[in-house]
Amino acid sequence: MKIVIPGGSGQVGTLLARAFTKDGHRVTVLSRNPELCKWHTVKWDGKSLGSWVEQIDGADVVINLAGYSVNCRYNQKNRHLIMNSRIDSTRVIGKAIQQCDNPPKTWLQACTATIYKDSYEKPNDEFTGIIGGDEPNVPDTWNFSIDVATSWERTLDEAKVPHTRKVKLRSSIILNPDSGSIFDILLRLVRFGLGGKIGSGDQFVSWIHYEDFIKCIYWIIDNEDISDFINVCSPSPLSNKDFMEALRSAWGIRIGLPASKLMLEIGTFLLRTETELVLKSRYVVPKILSDRGFKFQYPTWPEAAVDLCNEWKKLNS
Fold it and tell me: Considering only CA atoms, which of 218, 206, 222 is closest in space to residue 299?
């Protein structure tokens, strides 16, 4: 296949480009910073049509991952960057596909499982899940994240590309052992004795092992009747308390100091990020994948944590 990955220079793009290249597919990454990529990369600005459109024409699949990182403080400047980078890139890809003589068969559009409400009692699946935004007593930044996700998806819906299948990827956190990844950061807390529960520890964590994420992407490409949106996550979300306990066990540490909400507020302020990333309860399950018989290699967190710890040790030995 010929696969184009706009915004593919980050963690997720690297995972996909590495796997696709290994499997013999032709990969092109569109990036503002081509020097960061190891694969064939073409420069774009994420909002304007240019010579990069030639890469889209004749492609089998476009996987748009473009968007300013949410790992920042949600001040006015960063809110503008977070929102506009997603809207602009999605809109311009739609325009590029409209110009193609041979448009791509499939357009997979990154979105986020954060689009669902802060939930504890009932999991959010594709059929009964509730979009967030009106939960009482949640920080303003949480509502901003919902605005971003819904605007992102709406922009994809507005794209007029009748010969290209569109699928929104409502993905949970993707865990891989590479340096700087979410897993690497969480494991660092465990290694330094700080891997206890975060906040109350009751909030749900929806997650997926990176190998299952890659398998999901292949599966969605192959199953051409899948459209609109799909939850991309493991079938076994769990509380933050249990999540961290399993990670400590996988690393061989019994005790980890907990982080109170006040400590998180101070820590995230100093690190220039937001507490939403760890305090919102993301209780999301992949009903479409489960109902259609998708086989997860790592369906539960304890076994996934052991594998990721072992991979991390190999990478850092």
Answer: 206
Q: Give residue 33's pLDDT.
A: 84
| CA dist., res. 273 & res. 119, Å (int) | 22
Q: Which two tokens stand for residue 222?
A: 């192959």
Domains of the chain: 2-312 (3.40.50.720)
Measured distance CA(229)–CA(25) in Å, rounded: 25
First to last CA, the chain: 35
Residue 163 has pLDDT above 60, yes or no: yes
At residue 116's C-alpha, the angle toward residues 225 and 88, to 5°, is 70
Is residue 237 within 8 Å of 123, Cβ to Cβ? yes
Write the CA distances from 282 to 115, 124, 197, integer angstroms: 9, 8, 15
40-58 pLDDT, tens per residue? 999 999 999 999 999 999 9
Q: Is the dihedral of CA 215, 185, 65, 86 positive or negative?
A: positive
Alpha helix locations (H) across the chain?
Answer: 11-22, 53-56, 76-99, 140-158, 182-191, 210-222, 240-251, 261-271, 276-279, 287-291, 301-315
From 54-68, 140-154, 236-250, the region with the lowest mean pLDDT: 140-154
Residue 31: in which H helix or E strand, if any?
A: strand 26-31
**CB-CB contact of 186 with 247 (8 Å):** yes
Enter the pTM of the model: 0.95
Distances in Å between the Cα of 265 and the Cα atoms of 46, 73, 106, 256 are: 33, 11, 41, 19
Place of tokens 């007029």: 160
